[in-house]
Amino acid sequence: MTNYPSLCMMIDGERVAGGERRTHAVINPATGEKLGELPLAGPADLDRALEAAARGFAMWRDAPAAQRAGVLQGAARLLLERQEEIARIATMEQGKPLAESRLEVMMDVNLFNFYAGECQRLYGRTLVRPEGTRSTVVHEPVGVVAAFAPWNFPIGNPGRKLGGPIAAGCSVILKGAEETPASTLAVLQCLYDAGLPHDVAQAVFGVPDEVSRHLLSSPVVRKLSFTGSTVVGKHLMRLAADNMLRTTMELGGHGPVLVFDDTDLERTLDTVVPHKFRNCGQVCVSPTRFIVEDSLFERFRDGFVERAKQVRVGNGLEDGTQMGPMANARRPEAMDRMIGDAVERGATLHCGGHRIGNQGYFYAPSVLSDVPLEAEIMNEEPFGPVALINRFPDEAAMIAEANRLQYGLAAYAWTQDAARQKRLARRLEAGMVGINTVMLGGGDSPFGGAKWSGHGSEDGLEGVLACMITKAVHEA
């Protein structure tokens, strides 16, 4: 593919290339063609990154707020200038339509600009004490952050992992996704070009378990930030426990969508169907389990299927594409297994359930209804282009189903009843709730989950404070 950059790691300001290192082939998921060879870190590379990050923290923790803000604002400007270039790289690596990649660049622009403002607003407070004494509460950067970003948002996830620590005064070692390395490097390069000292942020790639064990066992690292599956998140938390690391864990979801019979059906369908198939369903907050009031069930199901069949699937670089391929060869295999299991258990497959073509990793938009609760797909995150539509008799049963699983990242509800909206906002067990909307994110809004979907938040003020410790100072 043309216009795909050469790959490297960024350690202590140096572009570290292959040499004698192991490499990973980066594949275009739309064509199956190799884009490049990515060098993988060995122990010496990781030790060098740790040394640089330690130096970077010692300096950056004392950097004035205006300096930190200036770097983030400058990076936001550069992201805007390079939007088309970065978006095309992300689409080549990950497969999503180019329009979605462009929006992902804007996600980082908005987040960096918001965090630039937060640099000036990291206030402490003075407590009421008797005359002659003084007690204050201050926030200080936690230290070196080891951050692990997945492939599904190849621009947005690195932005989140870098922006919060940099705003707080921390240094970062970012392990980007091996499937989408050039996007990670492009975001980091914008920060460097905006004036970020090179030892403040490092980017490494490697065998995930090797990298995580090496970094998290080091006394240099004081915080772990991870986005990914619940299974891997639990494993990393066990590693982090040995050094009592602070953790921010944004883990898997299984987004319930409660649809009541008083909703505007056409508007609801026109909103949720595109959102379900956004990024081929490879979104942690993707609406997945559609919990529909019985009286509306058949009309909702039929309208959903009709729209799903019209989704245009193709190469994300081509005009008119609404859904690209899945990101790697593992994902279509998982879809075949989970959909097959559901059908064997009695679910009805209305459309999809199969791969498209013999090139790349394309999978047809899929809709299942009347899915037994014991089916694997009703209990494990499918992370793919499949919607599950079941009927329920009333609000109590619908809430019970929404809260049945241990996942609690995002939940959605569609109803015009104002009192019901308030009840749902209280009773749905999720870190984020959308009522008559699928828009959950924003630079100023905390992004995180509950239960097995993790803890802590990225974005918003909370995303900066997650990289800081709270210190109480008492003076007499």
Account of the protein in words:
This protein is 38% helix and 22% strand. It is α/β, with parallel strands linked by helices. It has two domains: 9-251 and 453-475, 3-Layer(aba) Sandwich (Aldehyde Dehydrogenase, Chain A, domain 1), CATH 3.40.605; 255-443, 3-Layer(aba) Sandwich (Aldehyde Dehydrogenase, Chain A, domain 2), CATH 3.40.309.10. Helix 9 links the parallel strand 12 and strand 13. Helix 2 (65-81) crosses helix 6. The longest helix is centred in the N-terminal third of the chain and has 22 residues, at 98-119. The termini are far apart.
Quick overview of this protein structure:
It is built from 14 helices and 22 strands. A seven-stranded mixed β-sheet has the order 14-15-16-13-12-18-19, sandwiched between helices. A six-stranded mixed β-sheet has the order 9-8-7-10-11-21, sandwiched between helices. Helix 13 links the parallel strand 18 and strand 19.
